[in-house]
Amino acid sequence: MSTSSKLASDVPPSDEISDGVPEKRHLRVGFVALSDAAPLVVAKRLELGHEHGLTLELSREASWAAIRDKLITGELDAAHSLYGLVYGVQLGIGGPREDMAVLMVLNRNGQAVTVTPSLADAISETGDLRRALASLGRKPVFAQTFPTGTHAMFMNYWFAAQGIDPLTDITSIVIPPAHMVAAMEEGGLDGFCCGEPWHAVAQARGLGRTVTVSSDIWPNHPEKVLACRRDFVARYPNTAQALVRTLLSACRWLDMPGHRAEAAGWLAEPAWVGAPRDLIAARLLGDFGRLSGRHALLAVSFFDEGVVNYPHPSDGMWFVSQYRRWGMVGEAAVAGAASTAAAVSQTALFEAAARAEGVPVVARSAAQTLCDGRVWDATVAADLAGYVDGFAIRAKSANLR
Questions:
Q1: Where is the signal peptide (predicted)?
Q2: With contact defined as beta carbons under 8 Å apart, do 146 and 84 qualify?
Q3: Fewest Cβ atoms closer than 10 Å to its Cβ: which of 72, 258, 297, 303?
Q4: Do 102 and 225 touch, CB atoms closer than 8 A?
Q5: Closest among 291, 370, 372 to 120, alpha carbons compared
Q6: Using CA atoms, how far apart are residues 210 and 288, in angstroms rounded to an integer?
């Protein structure tokens, strides 16, 4: 049953809203089997929600499409979600359109691109991705996890930065993260982009080699978020704030010394991720083996004294810019990106929750230089159309409106 279809008797009395008591105390929160679901798993294992009047029921979902569908129908109250999934739904290009909310950022960095061993060898031998792909003698096939998601946009960006048009030179398919390794084993897949620990698993099994991590594409990029429908926030504002406080506590716990190794043991359990503990722990701690990159190879970050978690509207605007770049939206979406992002990013709610938890509010995002040398920050976001027009490789979509 969707949130909007519930009975009016479910609405809490006004005095309950005013005194900060959660209007809804039992929450069903979705996640996908990835290492960066760690804040939710930690929150559940330590029952951090109890301090804020919440009981969390975690629901492992098979794919990002399942997360999308269950958020839209109200089967899930909130979810660990791709940033780009939220914006795809908001704009009506990633499924049915629905007003969505980003309550907080759960992590930055922590994704990668893995290719077959033979392609990895070709990349090493030629020193050039374009030449290495040409050596296949056919159109390469790469997998990502959701059409409007982080992985699709990062993979497109990475290809284009090296002179490869992802729309014409690459066949892109969608595979759920936990199925990437099996797809690699079956053959027909040259590479994939998703979250950990599936890159570590593919490499350990000799099925693939990680050739870049996402921080080499965009250092300290926003990744997973705590997402919900916007009417959930309107209906249950105290609950939403309590949930943010709970997850902030979990993120802070994860960045404390020794805690990631402990969390890796929990994530390894079949109910959560179900991959070998050592492989989960290695990438959580930033061990990428002999991999080198143009930028710093940064480990996944969950808290960093609150720097990670602020839901900057400019983060969302970057996804809109890439949707326009690849012909997925028209000029109107770009023109309205600032207002869209302001509505999606629940900054006031986040700030209230952060202050209640004693977390510094870092409301301005730092400028970052991406792998093609272009800078992204809030100032650049203010001229989104100009930013998009500056890309040499982009869709020929001038007729979109």
A1: none
A2: yes
A3: 258
A4: yes
A5: 291
A6: 8
Arithmetic mean of pLDDT, 172-180 = 97
Give the Cα separation of 136 and 181 in Å (integer): 20
**Using CA atoms in the order 323, 225, 208, 284, what is the torsion angle rounded to 10 degrees?**
150
Whether the bond into 177 is cis, omega within 30 of 0: no
**φ/ψ (deg, to 5) at 290:** -95, 10
* Residue located via tokens 């008591």: 21
Bridge partners of 32, per DSSP, are: 61
> Do the Cβ atoms of 226 and 298 come closer than 8 Å?
no
pLDDT in tens, 210-262: 999 999 999 999 999 999 999 999 999 999 999 999 999 999 999 999 999 99
At residue 160, the 3 state secondary structure works out as: helix
Residue type for position 85:
L
Indicate the length of the chain as a whole number.
401
Residue 137's identity, in one-letter code, is G
pLDDT of residue 111: 97
- Give start and end residues of each alpha helix (H) in 168-312: 180-186, 198-204, 214-217, 230-235, 237-254, 259-267, 277-284
**Which are the contacts of 385, defined by CB distance < 8 A and separation ≥ 6?**
331, 334, 335
Closest C-alpha among 335, 171, 234 to residue 6: 234
- The whole-angstrom separation of Cα 345 and Cα 103 is 7
Question: What is the CB-side half-sphere exposure of residue 185 using CA atoms within 13 A?
Answer: 13
CA-CA distance, 189 to 140, in Å (whole number)?
8
Residue 310 corresponds to which amino acid?
Y
pLDDT at position 6 is 34
pLDDT of residue 288: 87
- Per-chain mean pLDDT for the chain: 93
Q: What percent of the chain shows pLDDT beyond 90?
A: 89
| pLDDT reading at 400 higher than 80 | no
- The pLDDT > 70 percentage for the chain reads 93
Residue 353: phi, psi to the nearest 5? -65, -40
